[in-house]
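Sequence only, no structure available. Ideas?
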Amino acid sequence: MDFIETIHQYHGACRAEVAASVETPGLGQCHIYRNGKSRPRSLVFGRRNFYKIYLLTAGAGHLHHASRSLLVERPALIFTNPLVPYSVHYDNGPHEAIFGSFNEQFWQGSGWTNSPGRAEASLFRPDSNPVLLLENHQLAVLRPLFEQLVAYATSDYAYRCEVLHKYLQLILHEAQRIEPQPLPTIPHNAAGRIVSLFLGLLGRQFPLVTTAQPLPLRTPQDYADALAVHVNYLNRAVQAVTGKTTSTHLAERLVLEATNLLQHSHWSIGDIADALGFAYPTYFNKFFKRHTGCTPLQMRHAALQVA
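Reply:
I predicted one. Tokens follow.
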């Protein structure tokens, strides 16, 4: 099977029946695609800042999501986000799907938030289940909502962007009904608010898409400065609310991003070290081995062997 690096190339290769892009100043971008029963192709992860919701109504294949491989052999709802590498490989035979992608600006323009306390955001968390297998009655509810996405995206209605927001919200809430996602509990006090802001800011630093734009915030002091609080206050709040130190959160996220880049990019180890804010590759090697038990080179070799 061919590997198609972008969703636009994928749409063209599958000869999608309908494709529409909506871009509104201040509200971001949303792309809606509908594939008729066409020959299967493969879709691989591109490090672009788009969330995707995919309704597979016919066909079967495998979703490789981070380190997991999941068989999808009946109608399903699939979620992907910019933080987690994935690829979709279809089995022989026709498949049929409707799917949409939207960027961070569209997400925020809808009134949603990356706050861990929101149901919509929880469906896209890296540790959540990316595939919801659907029963017939669930598909019967979701399919008309996706059909409406296509209808409004391809119309000339002046307020179609706002309508797409609403239908995406309905789809996400139907998904939450099918399989409720556990939500971290963050108290509604001053410490809780600063921790929510910290976690949102941390999440927005990733993914790194080019070596020309290295990680802007690297240390607890950087985050404290960005949030206009004293670093000691930030550290106390994060520890009290999450049970982890600020440094632990940063280290875990750096390890996840480093692992993704080593496994799914062609960047050199030196480029990865530089993009993640390490002054020298040797510092990055020691950091990565301390947290994972293997060197960056060993991680890359292991990924190549699996591929």
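Confidence is low (pLDDT under 50) at residues 1-18, 112-119.
Hope that gets you unstuck.
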